[in-house]
């Protein structure tokens, strides 16, 4: 240090300058870690780790969220840095292997309910940031993991090694020749970080992703994740960029669709926090996805007119139409008598949930309601199923009747369901 002999006041002044210089140096030394962890927070948000690793009403990342699969229920695990029940003792390599290879502690094979096949392509830089975030920013919570109840033979975890051989591509992300940087970023987000295909891509017989039919629609528990390819009829070619932007940032696209169930969780925890550039990149990539047709003859958002339909008129004059009665008693206060909607209450015409070739999203919405966070606002429709708190519960027959009325009057009239259909969806919602 250079000796400086000066008056006291000058020394104070120098010290102030030096101290502030020092102070600005100090945080800078730590800033690299903080910035890395903050970058990791964004990646964890884009990868939606929170949605699966947090039980309803539970502590963030402490696990216990049930994932209902056709072979049994798997509970996500505690990934807080708690030393005993969490991943506090995971080394960086172990953490990388769990996220990108599906290999947990002591070589334990994870089930692909943890979307490591999508995450396998996450870049090393992003993995470093993710690790820094889980090390330093996530609060440790000691909470024991819940055992899964996967049925034999899927309960033999070592069998996953064979599955991985079939379905795990271990290459990290590389832009493709000729791909713009925006489309490449969108592909990295949609196919890898956001793992949109885990719900929207159909599965093979062995539950692997049917990659030849990527994003062409799949069953997710009681719900249906629709075809989001560029197909003119079955896909989302009729959604404008701003429809998609509204949907991914707020969960609602006027006269197109709204996000309930698992998609509401995606919007609430993940897509609404992405930067506008990242949202645009995802849209740019979705526009490049190969079109895949399915059995639809008309686009699912094209059904319904705004004029009073004959069916409504008939319902109103037919006191025996149970569906219409339930609709006017339980639904019309929000969705309006002609199903045209008002304010935040969406129309049931021009609505992908009522125009689909299956009634899953309609029935699951009636059973569970809608709960979604967008900005300061919460979007809410009451549940009419087992969780109903605010309204009378509807029976399977009631829900079949009201659905059939809605499908005929506002949606795809060729789809009609019975009480057994509702009973099955109810069962799929219960772990
Ligand atoms: C779609 C749901 C889902 C998402 C999203 C998800 N996980 Fe998981 N994760 C699971 C499930 C389920 C398990 C337990 C799998 C098992 O028991 O075989 C798991 C297991 C793990 C494990 C192994 C923990 C242990 O107990 O050994 C780690 C680490 C992990 N996840 C980290 C992450 C990170 C980091 C993210 C975000 C980048 C993430 N997960 C996103 C469902 C998910
Ligand atoms: C956890 C499962 C899941 C994941 C992950 C997921 N989705 Fe969805 N998605 C759904 C379900 C279920 C619906 C139907 C929701 C409804 O109608 O209430 C849906 C609906 C949609 C729709 C509206 C389609 C229509 O016709 O109504 C779009 C667009 C969409 N998702 C895009 C995406 C994108 C892009 C991603 C990745 C960022 C993604 N989804 C990730 C399950 C998922
Ligand atoms: C208290 C007002 C209210 C009542 C009562 C109500 N809804 Fe809703 N409904 C909503 C809101 C709010 C949404 C979600 C809007 C959004 O996502 O932006 C919604 C969404 C929907 C959707 C679209 C779901 C999806 O996944 O795309 C359907 C279908 C629906 N309601 C049907 C019904 C039926 C059938 C009834 C009667 C059994 C009913 N609603 C009663 C407010 C209500």
TrEMBL record:
Subcellular location per the Swiss-Prot or TrEMBL entry: Cell membrane
The keyword Calcium is annotated on this UniProt entry: no
GO molecular function: electron transfer activity; heme binding; iron ion binding; oxidoreductase activity, acting on CH-OH group of donors
Primary subcellular site in the record, as a coarse category: membrane
Cofactor note: Binds 3 heme c groups covalently per subunit.
Record-linked InterPro entries: Cyt_c-like_dom (IPR009056), Cyt_c-like_dom_sf (IPR036909), Cytochrome_c-type_DH (IPR051459), Membr-bd_ADH_cyt_c (IPR014353)
Residues that, per the record, bind heme c 3: 331, 334-335
Gene Ontology CC: one annotated term: plasma membrane
Residues annotated for heme c 2 binding in this entry: 196, 199-200
Keywords assigned: Cell membrane, Heme, Iron, Membrane, Metal-binding, Repeat, Signal
Region (Disordered): 296-319
Residues where heme c 1 binds: 49, 52-53
Cofactors: heme c
Range of residues in the leader sequence: 1-31
Domain Cytochrome c: 35-138, 181-290, 318-410
UniProt entry tagged with the keyword Phosphoprotein: no
Alphabetical list of SUPFAM superfamilies matching this protein: Cytochrome c
PANTHER family documented for this protein: ALCOHOL DEHYDROGENASE CYTOCHROME C SUBUNIT, BLL4482 PROTEIN-RELATED
Name listed for the protein in its UniProt record: Cytochrome c
Protein's organism: Gluconobacter kanchanaburiensis NBRC 103587
């Amino acid at each position: 240090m250079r000796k400086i002999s000066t008056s006291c006041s000058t020394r104070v002044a120098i010290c102030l300058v030096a101290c502030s210089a020092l102070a600005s140096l100090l945080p800078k030394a730590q800033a690299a870690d903080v910035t890395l962890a903050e970058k990791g927070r964004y990646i964890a948000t884009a990868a939606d780790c929170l949605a699966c690793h947090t039980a309803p009403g539970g502590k963030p990342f402490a696990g216990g969220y049930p994932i209902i699969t056709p072979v049994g229920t798997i509970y996500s695990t505690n990934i807080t840095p708690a030393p005993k029940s969490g991943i506090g003792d995971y080394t960086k390599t172990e953490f990388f292997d769990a996220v990108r290879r599906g290999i947990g502690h002591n070589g334990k094979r994870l089930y692909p309910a943890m979307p490591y096949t999508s995450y396998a392509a996450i870049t090393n830089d992003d993995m470093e940031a993710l690790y820094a975030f889980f090390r330093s920013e996530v609060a440790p919570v000691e909470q024991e993991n819940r055992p899964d109840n996967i049925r034999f033979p899927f309960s033999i975890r070592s069998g996953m090694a064979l599955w991985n051989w079939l379905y795990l591509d271990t290459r990290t992300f590389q832009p493709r020749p000729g791909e713009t940087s925006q489309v490449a970023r969108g592909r990295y987000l949609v196919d890898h970080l956001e793992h949109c295909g885990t719900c929207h891509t159909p599965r093979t017989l062995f539950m692997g992703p049917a990659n030849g039919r990527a994003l062409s629609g799949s069953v997710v528990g009681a719900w249906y994740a629709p075809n989001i390819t560029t197909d003119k009829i079955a896909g989302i070619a009729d959604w404008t960029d701003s429809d998609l932007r509204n949907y991914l940032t707020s969960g609602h696209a006027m006269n197109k669709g709204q996000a309930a169930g698992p998609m509401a969780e995606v919007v609430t925890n993940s897509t609404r926090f992405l930067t506008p550039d990242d949202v645009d990149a995802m849209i740019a990539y979705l526009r490049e996805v190969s079109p895949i047709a399915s059995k639809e003859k008309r686009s699912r958002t094209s059904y319904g007119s705004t004029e009073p339909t004959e069916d409504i008129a008939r319902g109103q004059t037919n006191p025996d139409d149970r569906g219409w009665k339930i609709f006017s008693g339980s639904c019309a206060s929000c969705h309006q008598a002609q199903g045209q909607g008002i304010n935040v209450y969406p129309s049931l015409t021009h609505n992908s949930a009522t125009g689909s070739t299956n009634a899953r999203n309609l029935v699951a919405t009636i059973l569970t309601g809608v709960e979604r966070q967008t900005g300061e606002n919460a979007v809410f429709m009451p549940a009419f199923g087992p969780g109903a708190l605010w309204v009378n519960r509807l029976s399977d027959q009631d829900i079949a009747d009201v659905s059939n009325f809605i499908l005929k009057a506002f949606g795809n009239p060729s789809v009609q369901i019975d009480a057994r259909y509702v009973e099955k969806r109810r069962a799929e919602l219960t772990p």
